[in-house]
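Hypothesis: this fold can be encoded by more than one sequence.
Test: take the structure tokens below, design a sequence, compare later.
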């Protein structure tokens, strides 16, 4: 079909404590490391295609390996208006990604966790199908109009509106389903729903919806080096 994009899957590894185990993932056409995410990538046996950020928290060994390997480095100043994660995610558009998975250890800081969620929900990334593993949670981003079928990774599933009201949400496979309803970012109605089917379907007509399945990856813990 004319104008159809070829699939391109990209893995983004963020900084924080070193990731040493991850869930089983699909294969990827490109690996992007955000700053010290390069150390996690190496620890996982991955060689990044691109390293992005100010490189202020990359280990000396990791930085030396990057330089010796000839990996592309897109460096930024330390004083900047964007986080390294935002810069890495924005590169998805330059890379013509169709699907992206972000790996993040979480790190335990609320401001960092919220910043990652906000970056994932950036409407400029609506053309990319995005999911993330943050600490032990699996996160799926839906920009309307769109739909997604999710496996039962965790019995608990929470729906959070981002960037304003998420409209026309219809779900099946949950204990409490929605039928063409709206969720506001300041209301907790979508929190702690229960997936009762093997798979659940979510349809969004407009806005941005963040779907969080906590405790989906119990083995994924960021261990200190």
């Amino acid at each position: 079909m004319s104008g159809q994009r070829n699939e391109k899957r990209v893995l983004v590894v963020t900084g924080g404590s070193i990731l040493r185990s991850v869930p089983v993932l699909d294969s990827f056409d490109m690996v992007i490391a955000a700053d010290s995410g390069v150390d996690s990538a190496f620890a996982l046996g991955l060689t990044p295609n691109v390293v992005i950020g100010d490189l202020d928290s990359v280990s000396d060994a990791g930085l030396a390996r990057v330089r010796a390997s000839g990996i592309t480095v897109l460096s930024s100043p330390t004083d900047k208006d964007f986080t390294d994660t935002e810069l890495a995610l924005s590169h998805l558009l330059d890379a013509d990604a169709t699907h992206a998975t972000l790996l993040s250890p979480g790190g335990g800081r609320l401001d960092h966790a919220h910043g990652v969620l906000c970056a994932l929900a950036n409407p400029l990334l609506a053309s990319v199908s995005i999911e993330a593993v943050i600490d032990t949670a699996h996160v799926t981003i839906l920009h309307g109009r769109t739909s997604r079928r999710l496996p039962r990774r965790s019995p608990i599933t929470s729906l959070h509106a981002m960037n304003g009201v998420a409209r026309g949400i219809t779900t099946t496979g949950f204990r409490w389903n929605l039928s063409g309803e709206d969720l506001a970012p300041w209301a907790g109605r979508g929190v702690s729903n229960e997936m009762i089917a093997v798979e659940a379907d979510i349809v969004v007509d407009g806005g941005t919806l963040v779907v969080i399945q906590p405790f989906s990856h119990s083995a994924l813990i960021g261990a200190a080096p």
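The chain has two domains: 1-135, 142-216. The CA atoms of residues 136 and 215 lie 5 Å apart.
Hypothesis status: open.
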